[in-house]
Write a structure and sequence with these properties.
Radius of gyration: 19 Å
Oligomer: single chain
Number of strands: 17
Helix content: under 10%
Shape: globular
Number of helices: 0
Distance between the termini: 22 Å
Largest sheet: 6 strands, mixed
């Protein structure tokens, strides 16, 4: 990252449900992957796709996580080798029923979607998914990896459906990143915001966010109710020995916010 222009990303996804409907879960697991993706030495690659693999079923997702894995062994790749900087999955719906919902996202902190018991994100067999991602090669050699995503799925019709609501302060830029201008006075702050009308009135049952090192906070507020703060997420920092601070090439400090 340049000293003058720092790349930044701010993303929040909130899952909302109207009423709880606890049910006896009968889950099963599924693992899918996309790729392989090739990266040159010390390179950064932005990518994505609008027709990735899906569970192809009617039901619910109750858990989801994403990782980068080796093309030969299938084992998770350490960040000293390849880092999945961020990834966002969207449900594009079907040709008959469009959705366009960002329903799960993750940064290098490996955040997971874990919905409370009794809730699930509804999916349909005909749904098409897309995703955007950023990969960073931290070694001086060509490398190839898969992006793997694992889900816990449930066909129990008694699960209460959640509705994802996402905010993206890059306003749809490629890779969901934006530039923070440098050269300001000490303690200068670059503040970005975006608003999104909630499609439902209900209870927030889960949420996640991602900001880069140097960020102060991520705040979710309600403008129509005195601009009250619903949630504030502040980055936490690793100890000096954390692997995030010992990758090559050297870059700015990293934080995380979940």
């Amino acid at each position: 990252m340049s000293a003058v222009l720092r790349k930044a990303l701010l993303l929040a996804i909130v899952l909302v449900a109207v009423l709880a409907a606890p049910a006896a879960a009968k889950p099963f697991h599924m693992t899918l992957k996309e790729g392989p993706f090739e990266l040159g030495p010390y390179s950064v690659r932005l990518g994505g796709g609008g027709d990735i693999r899906t569970p192809r079923m009617n039901g619910f997702i109750t858990h989801m996580q994403a990782d980068v894995v080796d093309v030969r062994t299938g084992k998770v790749v350490p960040i000293q080798r390849i880092m999945l900087h961020h990834i966002v999955f969207s449900n594009l719906g079907s040709s008959a029923k469009r959705k366009g919902q960002a329903f799960y996202g993750d940064g290098e902190e490996r955040a997971r979607m874990d919905l409370p018991r009794g809730y699930g994100y509804p999916i349909e067999r005909a749904d098409k998914w897309g995703f955007v991602w950023m990969l960073m090669n931290h070694r001086d050699r060509l490398d190839r990896v898969y992006v793997r995503y694992r889900m816990t799925l449930d066909r129990n019709p008694r699960l209460h459906p959640v509705v994802p609501v996402a905010w993206d302060t890059s306003h749809g830029r490629q890779g969901l990143v934006f530039d923070v201008p440098g050269g300001g006075a000490p303690r200068s702050v670059d503040q970005r915001s975006t608003s999104h009308p909630s499609p439902v009135s209900g209870r927030i049952v889960a949420g996640l966010g991602h900001v880069h090192g140097g960020a102060k906070s991520l705040t979710l507020s309600e403008p129509t109710c005195g601009n009250r703060r619903i949630y504030v997420s502040r980055p936490t920092w690793g100890l000096p020995g954390h692997p995030f601070y010992h990758v090559r090439p050297s870059c700015t400090s990293r934080g995380r916010s979940t």
